Inverse folding.
């Protein structure tokens, strides 16, 4: 069994709550040497985590400075930069920082550079699998930076689906941004297709029954649209504003090499970004990302429902 040292977790949001929970379980059965310390901007949430999982609530960020491993899961690299700036002067040399935020590759390189100056090693480790995957420990991790045994051991405690070494620091964040851009593109294009079919009298469930046994299927047609849209729940647990952030990152990466962007091709990602931006303007940062289809529905004048009636619902 690989031994680890003191671990602290920053950011108990929809993802961080479950990731830190799995680390706490590992501490309980001896796969981590000591209880996990958790810090959250809203302290009451860290207190609740401590009560539920037996973690130690940190009331001030200086409580985090003496640990060996810091794991962050914050909205964007802006918040990670701010935390790193506050903590860096007091961190021990040799500390490992694992950033599970879906961040910006270039900002992450800068943070890693500054942390290296005080002897702290950073790796980016964005994850996929949603709040359910975080709760069950079945995430996929996309790792950027030098591989190290200690990081891999810690990551394996919450990313039991798959761990992929993507390349140098920032590479994990680049892959994650593209993954989410594909996720957004797939739900938008599948939504448009189903709205068009609804308009010509084919019920969404009937269409999905055929598509999901055919070449046009995706995670969105197989799972997300049936469970979140046709049921009208719109409650996957990932904010529209965070999805827009990831799609923006993907488009920035695409645009960072001018020869890769022109009007005739390489234009799909920017269209996805514009669609997500429209949805955020329409429904706000905090709406679930699946609500992008509400915006499409409004444009189309029809909604996607499970088959309770034979008539499409016109809005
Ligand atoms: P949430 O909005 O649920 O949680 C955000 C967390 O960050 C909260 O703990 C919040 O604290 C904290 N926070 C916000 N602003 C600040 C700040 N200025 N300083 C310190 N802490 C702050 O986000 P998620 O958990 O959904 O997402 C976290 C990251 O994981 C994002 O990068 C997201 O893109 C990514 N991700 C999300 C997935 C999902 O399905 N939800 C899936 C995969 C990746 P407080 O409680 O005080 O608000």
């Amino acid at each position: 069994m690989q031994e680890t040292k003191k671990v602290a977790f920053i950011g108990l949001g929809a993802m961080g709550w479950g990731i830190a929970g799995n680390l706490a379980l590992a501490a309980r059965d001896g796969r981590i040497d000591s209880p996990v310390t958790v810090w959250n901007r809203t302290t009451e949430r860290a207190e609740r985590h401590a009560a539920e999982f037996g973690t130690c609530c940190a009331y001030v960020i200086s409580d985090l400075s003496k640990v060996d491993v810091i794991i962050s899961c914050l909205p964007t690299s802006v918040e990670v930069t701010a935390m790193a700036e506050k903590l860096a002067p007091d961190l021990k040399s040799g500390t490992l920082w694992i950033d599970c935020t879906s961040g910006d590759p270039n900002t992450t390189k800068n943070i890693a550079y500054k942390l290296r100056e005080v002897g702290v090693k950073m790796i980016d480790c964005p994850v996929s699998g949603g709040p359910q995957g975080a709760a069950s420990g079945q995430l996929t991790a996309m790792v950027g930076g030098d591989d190290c045994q200690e990081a891999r051991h810690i990551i394996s405690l919450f990313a039991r689906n798959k761990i992929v070494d993507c390349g140098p620091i920032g590479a994990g964040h680049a892959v994650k941004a593209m993954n989410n851009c594909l996720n957004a593109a797939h739900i938008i294009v599948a939504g448009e297709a189903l709205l068009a079919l609804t308009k010509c009298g084919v019920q969404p469930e009937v269409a999905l029954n055929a598509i999901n046994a055919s070449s046009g299927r995706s995670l969105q047609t197989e799972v997300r649209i049936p469970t979140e849209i046709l049921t009208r729940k719109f409650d996957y647990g990932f904010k529209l504003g965070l999805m827009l952030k990831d799609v923006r990152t993907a488009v920035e990466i695409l645009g960072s090499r001018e020869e890769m962007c022109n009007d005739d091709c390489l234009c799909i990602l920017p269209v996805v970004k514009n669609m997500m931006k429209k949805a955020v303007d329409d429904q706000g940062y905090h709406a679930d990302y699946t609500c992008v289809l509400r915006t499409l529905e409004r444009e189309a004048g029809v909604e996607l429902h499970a088959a309770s009636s034979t008539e499409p619902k016109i809005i």
Observations:
- The pocket of NDP is lined by residues 11-16, 40-42, 45, 73-75, 79, 101-102, 127-128, 130-131, 237-239, 242 (CB under 6 Å).
- The radius of gyration is 21 Å.
- Residues 156 and 163 are 7 Å apart (CA to CA).
- The chain is about 50% helix and 10% strand.
